[in-house]
Amino acid sequence: MVNSANNIYIRTNPDKNPASKTYLSMRTNRQQDFQVASEFDSIDRFQFLSIRFLGRVRGAPGACMAMFTYVPADEIKNVQEADMEILTREDYDRVHYTNHPGYSIEGEVYPKATRNTTFPDGLKWNEWVEHRMDWTPNQSIWYANGKQVANISFQVPRDPSLMIFNTWGDGGVWTQNMTMGEEAYMEMQWLQLLYNTSETSDKRKRDGAGPKGRFLRKRGDGNVCRMVCSIDDEDDAGVVTWLWGNNTASSLLAGRSVGASFGGLISWGLGLVVLARWI
């Protein structure tokens, strides 16, 4: 399996009456001797977050589409990962959520780590669905179009993590085999990432992520919160609602894309990609 940047691209949305003019496409394709995959990763300093994206999956059986936090380790027992996986060999409503590891090196399976389930309300992964994961200190919670689908409290990731999206297949037991010449896609219209970081402001000498190259810093004295905003009170992606607090800041934020003005929320749409590293 080979990751290729050529398999991540922006394309025009061919849908009838599309909600967006373009979307991000991530492709996996079966060649004669190998399978080409696609992946993009963030920096590795996110510690607890809410991530939402409007996406769909389509294409041939034999692929896995995944979104997950990830802390690598030399031994499987030390891996920290909360993931969503969709398999193109399965029914259109099937989805898998796991706080890894889901099994031990000896092959013991951990049932409490995984929820193998279906989307609510007849939703299908080959149609546009708003996926959401809230990673908190005590649980990972998963939603589809605003309805909770899974809640896992077993071995919740605890350390600063990467965020990864990938589309792949290896002919193994999990994905199974894709027919030569076939391909599959994960497509996204927009993505939002509301995050915390793992360092205090006095340790961040070089802040290379987030809008304008910086993370959100605490404003005000000590632990006093000077402004409260919401991203759940707006119908449009990438827009923040000021709830209460500093009036000057609220006037700057009102009705604006949070990706342009609010360091704690990364947002993109219509072809603007902001995550940090492409594979």
Automatic annotation (TrEMBL):
It comes from the Eukaryota. This is GH16 domain-containing protein. It comes from Fusarium oxysporum f. sp. narcissi. Residues 22-176 form the GH16 domain. Pfam families: Glyco_hydro_16. InterPro entries: Beta-glucanase-like, ConA-like_dom_sf. GO terms for molecular function: hydrolase activity, hydrolyzing O-glycosyl compounds. PANTHER family: GH16 DOMAIN-CONTAINING PROTEIN, GH16 DOMAIN-CONTAINING PROTEIN-RELATED. One of its GO terms (biological process) is carbohydrate metabolic process.
